[in-house]
Design brief:
115 residues; mainly beta; 11 strands; 4-stranded antiparallel beta sheet; 7-stranded mixed beta sheet
């Protein structure tokens, strides 16, 4: 099982980034996919979630209206489009695949929002 995030980096406030998470080694389409973030000195936060078949999505209040989660099952990939970024969005972002007792994590990608 492998989850690999990409697309992180340094961006100015108000800018955009798109994170990608490529999955392998399990039946991607059967899993709920989630993005978490962890900033220094703060607890890990669930940022967004998308169900199997994309029928349901969830966003944390802190990102609602600015972030969009999507998935392409044919590519075993989940995305997080992040717009209107703020300095408080700075964190390591983690991709997660969850289904019942199965819980897989990627190594994370750093997002830094700073001028």
């Amino acid at each position: 099982v492998q989850l690999v995030e990409s697309g992180g980096g340094l961006v100015q406030p108000g800018g955009s980034l798109r994170l990608s998470c490529a999955a392998s080694g399990f039946t991607f389409s059967s899993f709920t996919m989630r993005w978490f973030r962890h900033a220094p000195g703060k607890e890990r936060e669930l940022v967004a979630r998308i169900s199997e078949s994309s029928s349901d999505t969830y966003y944390a209040d802190s990102v609602k209206g600015r972030f969009t989660i999507s998935r392409v099952d044919a590519k075993n990939t989940v995305y997080l489009q992040m717009d209107s970024l703020k300095p408080e969005d700075t964190a390591v972002y983690y991709c997660n695949a969850w289904r019942w007792a199965y819980d897989y994590w990627g190594p994370g990608t750093q997002v830094t929002v700073s001028s």
